[in-house]
Design brief:
alpha+beta; binds phenylalanine; 7-stranded mixed sheet; 12 helices
Length: 356
Amino acid sequence: MSDKTELGRLVAEAQASFETASTMDELRAAKVAHVGDNSPIALANRGIADLPKEDRKEAGQAIGAARGAISAALAQREAALEVVEMEARLIAESVDVTLPVSMRPQGGLHPVTGLFYEMCDVFVAMGWEIAEGPEAEAEWMNFDALNFTPDHPSRFMSDTLFLDPPQNHKILRTHTSPVQMRTLLTRDLPVYIVVPGKTYRADEYDATHLPVFHQLEGLAVDKGLGMAELKGTLDHLAKSMFGSDTKTRLRPHYFPFTEPSAEIDLACFKCHGESVGNPDRACRTCRSEGWIEWGGCGVVNPRVLAAAGIDTDVYSGFAFGMGVDRTVMFRNGASDLRDFAEGDVRFSRQLVGVAR
Ligand code: PHE
């Protein structure tokens, strides 16, 4: 098959077939048909060997020229289709950077957790340690070890949540103070610890009470600690939390496990006392009282130290405990404690940045 017209027809057919291929896939099929091993031109090429010797040269040149023309047509079409396909891909895969993205909201810390971190940081910076204890606590640790008498009213079921069966004397701790005794029994002196934790009381669930709330407890036992060190420590905490001009006062109180005992009040950092007796300048933060109740504190009762086997002639200490939910409340103007438990992110988001 070295007939010039026949070869011309093969070339023309191949060119037409390449030209009509509109995708690379179609072109690949046309390539198999027109330059593949079984294509007419390949067969013609193989047939050269069967020709009489004197015809081979001419036939070889003609077939070679035809193959060259077919290959050139193929390469040309390939190059053209590559450009077309690349353009189509660029359009199909283009990204519209102006479209709105669907933002997945990030989780965040609960404001109470954030405030815990912040308060604990103040103490860790002074070399204190963090201690923890169980929320399901022995009644003995929660009360007896802390010098509560057997008939103390806060032991009653109306105040304390007992775990079944009640004769096991297991309760949900009503304060973080049982960790004081647990610490004294397990750590070497001196002791400087803060205890962030959950606490439980048989309270109504309303705007100012939660049956589950949070306290930060502090305990320091060393040589020569007393009321002055307690006041200095709490002042430092108050200034760190509420600003360097924050004032505190200690108001006499009673706790079985501290003696003397006090409640610590913060001078109102919002109105600085200017709302007191001044209805025009009413203050929601301190309810126009000028002072905000923050927590309980005192010098550790020597009976508590003695119960832990500590020589009270050598060692003394101070302790404090404050409500953390309450602190978020007056520090950040949250007005309903139930918001703390509902888990609505709109609440937490408002307080983002409160806890740095
Ligand atoms: N545990 C006390 C309370 O819950 C607070 C307190 C802690 C008082 C430490 C004195 C010392 O009210």
